[in-house]
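[step 3/7] inverse_fold.run input=structure_tokens len=378
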């Protein structure tokens, strides 16, 4: 050996800055449960969210749901909505200030009174010039009444400057309301091509994550705004259009190991009308949910109560289908057994994460591993 301790020290010193950058920028997957969906309810119709489970169950009965599953019915009775977003943007529209002020205060009071889903937040208007001040006012008023844990969804982000402004806003509100530093977090909605690819050719979405300084918890793909902005005709706008797949692949690469979670978008083909129409919409939604899961997008948007049965049916099926194989591969890896698949540590983490997600969402009630052991592997 020809290297001495000084050589090692010089290499360590030369890479110290990069080591610090990796720890800060790529801390790994965010710990804890990720909701399987986000439900957007316009602020003026917030009372309706508590009826979503009952409406979903009635739809299953009225239209003879093709994929009956007692666990799905139990989920709809117990916890139909995992992540609720009170919408003050597109779903709510433009109102005069007095109307929106009243809607903000009422929504905050409803949530404070409970019961409420395990995850929730509000979607404010964008920080574009036309809606910026209204957006700031809405978030300020909401915090004046409701200060429990919640997430802010920031729509139509077009560049890092808007994210930097959002960070400044969060800091000001935390100080004003006596909240701990970092208490206010936000998700970024990717609804514009400029949020994926910048004018100078750089990947905007990676810069958005950096600009958030650790406050960004998720990237949510906006199916229809993004497709329209990319010039896709309305009839062909879809979660599975090539422009959608490209945008989400870039989002996935940018968010990997940053602790920022991904959410796919929605389908606007709703299960309403006669049984034939409802079942056709169910088939589409179930297929799209499964497609997203297979591509590593473990969350999506639901726009109607009757989409909940297919959300959970497809999600539960996805985790149950792969459970036995995942358990076998993970056991062989841990026991150092030879098998036909050469799994590596990264794959073992993925297998453990898959089983944990199945437990978290209720698809699995037994992963054949202690939860603590699975958590340690991830």
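[step 3/7] decode complete -> sequence:
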């Amino acid at each position: 050996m020809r290297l001495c301790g000084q050589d090692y020290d010089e290499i360590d010193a030369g890479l110290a800055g990069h080591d610090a950058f990796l720890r800060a920028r790529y801390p790994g997957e965010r710990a804890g449960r990720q909701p399987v969906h986000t439900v957007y309810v316009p602020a003026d119709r917030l009372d309706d969210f508590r009826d979503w489970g009952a409406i979903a169950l009635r739809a299953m009965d009225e239209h003879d749901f093709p994929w009956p599953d007692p666990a799905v019915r139990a989920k709809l009775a117990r916890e139909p909505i995992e992540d609720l977003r009170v919408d003050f943007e597109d779903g709510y529209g433009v109102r005069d200030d007095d109307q929106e002020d009243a809607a903000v205060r009422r929504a905050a009071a409803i949530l404070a009174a409970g019961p409420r889903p395990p995850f929730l937040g509000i979607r404010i208007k964008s920080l574009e010039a036309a809606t910026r001040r209204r957006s700031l006012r809405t978030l300020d008023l909401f915090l004046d009444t409701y200060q429990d844990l919640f997430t802010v969804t920031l729509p139509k982000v077009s560049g890092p400057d808007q994210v930097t402004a959002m960070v400044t806003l969060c800091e000001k509100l935390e100080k004003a309301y006596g909240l701990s530093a970092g208490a206010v977090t936000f998700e970024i909605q990717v609804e514009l091509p400029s949020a994926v690819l910048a004018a100078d050719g750089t990947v905007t979405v990676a810069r958005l994550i950096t600009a958030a300084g650790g406050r960004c918890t998720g990237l949510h793909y906006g199916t229809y705004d993004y497709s329209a902005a990319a010039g896709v005709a309305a009839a062909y706008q879809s979660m599975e259009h090539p422009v959608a797949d490209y945008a989400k692949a870039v989002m996935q690469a940018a968010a990997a190991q940053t602790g920022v979670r991904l959410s796919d978008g929605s389908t606007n083909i709703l299960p309403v009308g006669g049984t034939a129409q409802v079942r056709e919409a169910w088939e589409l939604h179930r297929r799209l949910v499964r497609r997203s899961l297979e591509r590593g997008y473990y969350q999506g948007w639901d726009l109607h109560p009757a989409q909940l049965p297919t959300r959970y049916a497809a999600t539960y099926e996805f985790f149950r289908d792969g459970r036995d194989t995942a358990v076998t591969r993970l056991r062989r890896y841990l026991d150092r057994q030879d098998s036909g698949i050469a799994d590596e540590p990264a794959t073992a983490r993925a297998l453990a994460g898959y089983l944990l997600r199945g437990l978290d969402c209720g698809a699995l009630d037994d992963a054949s591993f202690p939860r603590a052991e699975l958590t340690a592997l991830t």
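[step 4/7] annotate
The CA atoms of residues 37 and 84 lie 9 Å apart.
The chain has a mean pLDDT of 95.
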